[in-house]
Amino acid sequence: MIRVEGLVKKYGEFVAVDGVDLAVGSGEIVGLLGPNGAGKTTTLRVIVGILEADDGRVEVDGHDVSSQPLDAKRRLGFVPDRPFVYEKLTGEELLRFSAGLRGRVGPEVDRRIDELLELWDLGPWRDELVESYSHGMRQKLILSSALVHGPSTLVIDEPMVGLDPAAARLLKRLLRQFADQGGAALISTHTLEFAEALCDRLEVIRSGTILASGTMEELRRQAATESGDLEEVFLRLVGGIEERRIARALTGDPRA
Ligand SMILES: Nc1ncnc2c1ncn2[C@@H]1O[C@H](COP(=O)(O)OP(=O)(O)OP(=O)(O)O)[C@@H](O)[C@H]1O
Ligand SMILES: [Mg+2]
Tens of pLDDT along 123-171? Predict the structure, then answer.
């Protein structure tokens, strides 16, 4: 349902994404892992059509994102890392607006709005302005706005930010059901526990290229760690920092 082939994205001369291939099928949740600045957000933004690729192809549900952007966007739900929200809308208005942008209005949307607000315990806040929402409440609303039009494909940049443990658990169950019903989800995350618990496959990216792909088990084998500790697997794959360099940074002493 998401197919990315040979994706290249530059900012000026700087190559942020350098030939990425990946695919997410119906029923699958794929995690995009990688250090800060690896190119995760850039890749996701190209997939959802916010940025234009310099090379390569992106298809969402069979629709080319650059030549059929509206068809692709109708099928997509996107949760950005730093969402822009209209502070002067109420929670309910924001969801209605979001559905309307994808051409969805009517009783089905009304019911979905009610259900989503109830699900996230936002019912009592539905008529309050978004500016009065807490960080986690906003995240729940943004997650709802990505689902309100009934997408087949979800792209989520850092879903766990700001969510309390109960909401994080709920999100995992929601995403699992979404995939079990035939949806496809691509999720960037730094939360390794979330990646392990939820993702069917992982793509590890660094400096704009995919370093490793596969199930958690396959990545453990590639990283060849004995303990199989998640953090160690990740750090082996992307490279860590030695204690000496931390000491140098703390003291400013190059001999430390
Ligand atoms: N608008 C921009 N202009 C110039 N360079 C950019 C821009 N956005 C991102 N970059 C650069 O592209 C690279 C990839 O950034 P990106 O935001 O995709 O990383 P990321 O993997 O999402 O990192 P993080 O884990 O910190 O969110 C970084 O080196 C970043 O500095
Ligand atoms: Mg990012």
Answer: 999 999 999 999 999 999 999 999 999 999 999 999 888 899 999 999 9
CA-CA distance, 69 to 73, in Å (whole number)?
6
Nearest-atom number in ligand 1 for the CA of 81 is 27
Output the six-digit token pair for 168.
């994080």
Place of tokens 């958690």: 216
Kindly give the pairing relationship between strand 55-60 and strand 29-33. Answer: unpaired
For residue 55, list its beta bridge partners: 8
Pairing of strands 55-60, 2-11: antiparallel
User: Which residues are near ligand 1 (CB < 6 Å)?
Assistant: 11, 14, 16, 34, 36-42
Q: What are the tens digits of pLDDT across the range 196-237?
A: 999 999 999 999 999 999 998 888 888 877 677 778 888 888
In angstroms, the CA 256 to CA 253 distance is: 5
Work out whether the CA dihedral 45, 46, 50, 51 comes out positive or negative. positive
CB atoms < 10 A from the CB of 240, how many? 11
**Number of neighbours of residue 256 by Cβ within 10 angstroms:** 13
Q: Confirm whether pTM is higher than 0.90.
A: yes
Residue ID of nearest Cα to ligand 1 atom 11:
16
On whether the CB atoms of residues 210 and 179 are closer than 8 A, the answer is no
